[in-house]
Amino acid sequence: MASAADFNEALRKQGLPPAYRFEAEVHQAQLALPGSLDALEAFRRSLPALFEPCRIDPNREGFAAMVTSQPESFGLTASASGDQIHAVILQGLAADPDLAFHLLPAGEEPQAAEGMRLFPPEQGETVEDYWIWTVRCPAFFPGPAWLLQRRDGQEPPYTYGTL
User: Fold this and answer.
1) Which site from 37, 38, 141, 149 is most exposed, i.e. has the minimal number of CB atoms within 10 Å?
2) What are the residues whose beta carbons fall under 8 Å from the beta carbon of 111, sequence distance 6 or more?
3) Dist CA 42 CA 19 (whole Å)
């Protein structure tokens, strides 16, 4: 099984700080679920989705939608490039002292080890079908956000949130 260091290395490769909150029991419990991707490979594949509009619905709220809907708030123009949007999201996430990635545990009211409630995705995706990480970054994006990858790896990963 992968370790916290492995997940934090994946974050580092994206330019993000070590913000993975590894909970061995949550990871262990999900190893029994069917799927062709393990958690670390799914996490690595899904991280670039943090910087893109939601692939399944570009109108859903999320980091990219927040930046493109109010570019002037981030020092950009309406014609900002994808690279500029990526840079703003990266800077916002990296600067947030409370940035945290949690693998969503199964259960109706999942909680992180420190007792923080982890909200399940609003579009009904389940732990049985997806690797789901909650992304906490309240200084940059005040609402809950999710990073999702189907366990079978058959669809591209995506992210969205709620402001």
Assistant:
1) 38
2) 105, 117, 118
3) 17
Tokens for 27, please give them: 């990871």
3-state secondary structure of 14: coil
Helix, coil or strand: residue 78: coil
Residue with tokens 């999942």: 110
The whole-number pLDDT of residue 106 equals 78
Choose among 134, 118, 126: nearest CA to 151: 126
**Contact between residue 74 and residue 113 where contact means Cβ atoms under 8 Å apart:** no
Q: b/e for 51-82, b at 16 or more Cβ within 10 A?
A: bbbbeeeeebbbbbbbbbeebeebebeeebee
Spans of the chain, pLDDT less than 50? none
pLDDT of residue 108: 52
pLDDT at res. 57: 92
Q: What integer pLDDT is reported at residue 116 of this predicted model?
A: 62
Query: Quick one: tokens of 97?
Result: 């002292």
Q: Where are the alpha helices (DSSP H) in the chain?
A: 4-13, 24-31, 39-46, 63-69, 82-95
Spans of all domains in the chain: 4-105+123-161
